[in-house]
Amino acid sequence: MEGKVRIGFYALTSCYGCQLQLAMMDEILQLLPKAEIVCWFMLERDSYEDEPVDIAFIEGSVSTEEEVELVKRIRENAKIVVAVGSCAVHGGVQSWEKDKSLEELWKTVYGDGKVKFEPKMAEPVENYIKVDHRIYGCPPEKKDFLYALGTFLVGSWPEDIDYPVCVECRLKGHPCILIEKGEPCLGPITRAGCDARCPGFGVACIGCRGAIGYDVAWFDSLARTFKEKGISKEDILQRMKMFNAHNPKLEEMVEKIFQGVEE
Ligand code: SF4
Ligand code: SF4
Ligand code: SF4
């Protein structure tokens, strides 16, 4: 990319945790001579949402009609669109119960409360516009952001991670929560990149980085342990829905685990 790279950070419905994670990176300061931050309301009041940018980072899920229009405008104005975090990539925890009606969910949370905008079920950004790259996690790892940004700045393209959290967990030498305690750790079917943070603290992975594709060699052998440990299909499905409710292959994937592989 020639000259100063124009960057925009945009927030949809979210907890702002991804932006905060990025805003706390000292490395952002090193970026300033090479980049112009056109839009980032968390850091700069004079931000411009409808300006052309080279790279658009979008945080949050599309949860209002206004946000549908906003993501379309961002796409029109950006050369590269990056979905940042589980909300933008997968719809986030706010889309967990996507099979229930918006009215029912609204009533449960807000009672008879009214808002000025028109709310809708939370959805991933990709349901509305083409996304060029995804940065996973809730919130994402700083290194993933730096890697993506760094590769874009040198005119290259970041690679996606195609192995599960278990790989990092084994490399770190953590005890296996699934095998040793029989807890429903989602590490075998979750995209790596967090250095198996939760198992490192003795906590089973809840899949915040989203499900990895299941057409990989070790999926069957690792995932079948759920079955051997007596963990139910419903339990795994419920846990996976937390961050994967919009995954079109979710049920198929869980079904595959529980129907087993060839014995
Ligand atoms: S992905 Fe997680 S940290 Fe980021 S905005 Fe959504 S809820 Fe917050
Ligand atoms: S199942 Fe969980 S605890 Fe066991 S190796 Fe995989 S990530 Fe680690
Ligand atoms: S171990 Fe699982 S839940 Fe924990 S940070 Fe990694 S992907 Fe997210």
UniProtKB/TrEMBL annotation:
GO molecular function: iron-sulfur cluster binding; oxidoreductase activity
Keyword presence, Oxidoreductase: yes
Domain NADH:ubiquinone oxidoreductase-like 20kDa subunit: 15-149
Oxidoreductase is among the record's keywords: yes
Keywords: Oxidoreductase
This protein's name: Sulfhydrogenase 1 subunit delta
